[in-house]
Task: structure prediction
Amino acid sequence: MSQNIKTLSFLVEGGKATAGPPIGPALGPLGLNVMQVVKKINELTQEYAGMRVPVKVIVNTENKTFEVEVGTPTTAALIVKELKLEKGAHQSTKEWVGNLTVEQVVKIAKIKIKEMGAKSLKAAVKTVAGTCQSMGITIDGKQPKQFIEDVNRGVYDEIIRKYEGEAA
Result:
């Protein structure tokens, strides 16, 4: 990699990055238009409003150009947002603090699928269900282990297939 390339990582609230710390002070000395960078970050993270999102700004210090790469919030953060909870259960095997619909699980799976490296949307759905298990969240009124068994048996194939072609 060229020594003219600098990569800076930030954790920002979706759609609410500002030119203040930590972004402004880190980018200012590199000669970039900080407001341009902030605008781009906010544009790319607005769908994650209310969540903290990992962002990388890759700067070419020679020609003063930049790229912004946006990560995704954790699966747990997406579940908490979807259910408008403060956090998961204290004892996830004994208490259930929320219930996701199958559609909500599929929506989260679509957001996370690339990062998970899942081979299919069905596999990503089961991974999200595993996170639900550790958080004390039921799915479709069922404990996540039961939901995963039903997914394996094809109970939700039609719903999953319906979402497969859509962009996240």
